[in-house]
Design a protein that fits this description.
Layout (H helix, E strand, L loop, with lengths): L1 H9 L7 E5 L11 H5 L14 H8 L1 E5 L1 E7 L4 E6 L6 E4 L3 E3 L3 E3 L12 E3 L3 H14 L3 E5 L3 H11 L4 E6 L14 H9 L3 E4 L3 E7 L2 E7 L3 E3 L2 E4 L3 E3 L2 H5 L23 E3 L6 E3 L4 E3 L4 H15 L13 E5 L2 E7 L2 H6 L4 E9 L10 E9 L5 E8 L7 H9 L4 H5 L15 H20 L2
Parallel strand pairs: 1-2, 6-17, 8-15, 9-10, 9-15, 10-11
Antiparallel strand pairs: 3-4, 4-5, 7-16, 12-13, 13-14, 18-19, 20-21, 21-24, 22-23, 23-24
Helix pairs in contact: 1-8
The protein binds flavin-adenine dinucleotide (FAD).
The site of flavin-adenine dinucleotide has 26 residues, from strand 1, helix 2, strand 3 and helix 8.
Length: about 450
């Protein structure tokens, strides 16, 4: 709908007819808000819906049809086969330009018992409503979250608000695979502080059921009794329609697009979770399911479809989240990711405070920088800490966007007053330490 709206801004209804099909029951809602709806921070589901089909029709002249599934794309005939899920025969709808924005498919394990009642994924607003209804009606005492990624952790926090005992299981050695393992300590401590059980290094092998309903999660170590399970195992690009239509994928497994969001087929555009994005530091295509990218790609495609010219310059993988009182931010490459991308990284992690140490409310914050050995170029950054920590990552994302070295970063004119940061902001302390590390390494390797 970002693409539809941008195209509409470029060309009015008398010039461009826009029809959007979605098989779901809503348009333009914030999936990102679902955990906060489940956790009752947001009580009204309508608050998550930016625009309804009626609003699109009335204010934007966009014909958005929910409950309509696209079954096939025929790029030669320039038509899509559509079915109204409430009944009725299917038909072919012609197009001059097509935008494919089919999103992502949640990863579901093919394990014994995985289809049992009481096992939920959380991908759509309907999923969020179903989880909230199950919590309200069944009043479970114990919930297992499988997967300690962003969504798993956000849901674990949401579930705590219902007074249930939450167990989070992940096969990794630290929560949140998007962080380097040495950055996970504060998250683990928060999970324990908020009464959760964290089982790391365990792989789920199946689900026990009683009368068709999930009763326990089995791992390769233990059996955990439970009343409800939430799966947070990540997603992959939803490319089935595109593949069937001969629209080429790229090496990372998403639909391949150029900077204008054109696919390999003339007149077909794509954006969002279903496409590959160019990683500006790794210099290669990646798949990342983030709404911040999807919206910008939609806008870019829409401007182009509307006859304008816009490009999307790629991503850094900048993301923030929180678990109870601990905030997390990351951008660019982690230590291993930097090696995988062919860099020789040097890393520093510094512990500091979010405010001047003497000022009330100063909280711990840990900042890690990944820099390139020799040049000192910033390659990535991660921050974990309490209030005021996460959004500091945006300064580092901007530095990364402009290929800054840690030496350039350490003298950057960032603001300071005791209620907001120590005299040297944690970002600057980390840059200083990283520069010292790069310099020491240069001296030690100089012939
Ligand atoms: C619980 C949760 C929390 C999240 N939190 C964040 C966050 O904090 N920050 C962030 O940046 N991102 C977050 N995300 C990710 C973000 O929501 C997605 O990246 C974003 O929604 C992707 O937009 P999209 O348009 O590509 O796909 P979607 O929003 O998934 O839309 C794709 C649409 O295509 C429809 N569709 C698919 N196939 C067909 C078909 N054949 N016919 C008709 N319709 C079809 C689907 O019904 C769906 O509505 C979160 C996601 C979830 C699930």
């Amino acid at each position: 709908m970002s693409a539809a709206s941008a195209a509409r801004r470029a060309r009015g209804p008398e010039e461009l007819e826009i029809v959007a099909f979605d098989r779901g029951n809503y348009t333009s809602y914030s999936a990102c808000g679902i955990p906060y709806f489940i956790g009752n921070d947001v009580t009204d589901v309508d608050a998550l819906i930016a625009r309804t089909p009626e609003q699109f029709a009335r204010h934007h002249g966009i014909d958005a049809r929910i409950g309509h599934e696209v079954l096939n794309i025929d790029t030669d005939r320039q038509a899509v086969e559509v079915r109204d899920l409430r009944g009725g025969a299917g038909w072919w709808e012609g197009f001059d330009q097509l935008m494919v924005a089919t999103g992502a498919v949640p990863i579901r394990p093919s394990l014994p018992g995985a289809d049992a009642q009481g096992i939920f994924g959380v991908q759509t607003l309907d999923d969020g409503l179903a989880v909230r209804a199950a919590l309200a009606q069944d009043r479970p005492r114990r919930v297992v979250v499988v997967g300690a990624g962003y969504i798993g952790l956000e849901l674990a926090e949401a579930l705590c608000a219902w007074g249930v005992h939450v167990t989070v299981i992940d096969r990794g050695q630290a929560p949140l695979a998007a962080l380097d393992p040495d950055m996970g300590g504060m998250l683990v401590a928060a999970m324990h502080r908020f009464g959760m059980t964290l089982r790391l290094g365990e792989t789920v092998t199946g689900f026990d059921t009683a009368a068709g309903k999930v009763s326990a999660v089995r791992t390769d170590h233990v059996t955990v009794p439970t009343d409800l399970v939430i799966l947070g195992l990540g997603v992959r690009p939803n490319t089935a329609l595109a593949v069937a239509a001969g629209i080429p994928l790229g090496p990372a497994g998403g639909i391949a697009v150029d900077q204008r969001l054109r696919t390999g087929v003339e007149g077909v555009w794509a954006g969002g979770d279903c496409v590959e994005k160019f990683h500006r530091v790794a210099r290669r295509p990646v798949t990342l399911a983030l709404g911040t990218h999807a919206n910008k790609e939609g806008r870019t495609a829409g401007i182009n479809i509307g006859g304008g010219y816009a490009t999307f310059p790629g991503v850094l993988g900048t993301a923030v989240t929180k678990l109870c009182d601990v905030q997390v931010g990351r951008t660019g490459l982690g230590e291993d990711e930097a090696r995988d991308a062919g860099f020789d990284p040097l890393c520093v992690a510094v512990d500091s405070t979010t405010r001047a140490g003497y000022y009330p409310g100063a909280k711990p914050i840990r900042t890690k920088l990944v820099a390139e050995r020799g040049t000192g170029r910033l390659l990535g950054a991660q921050i974990v800490g309490e209030e005021g920590a996460a959004k500091r990552i945006d300064v580092l994302a901007m530095a990364l966007w402009h290929d800054t070295t840690v030496e350039e970063l350490l003298n950057t004119d960032l603001s300071y007053a005791p209620p907001f940061s120590p005299l040297w902001d944690p970002v600057l302390i980390a840059a200083r330490k990283a520069w010292q590390r790069v310099e020491a390494d240069r001296r030690s390797t100089r012939p």
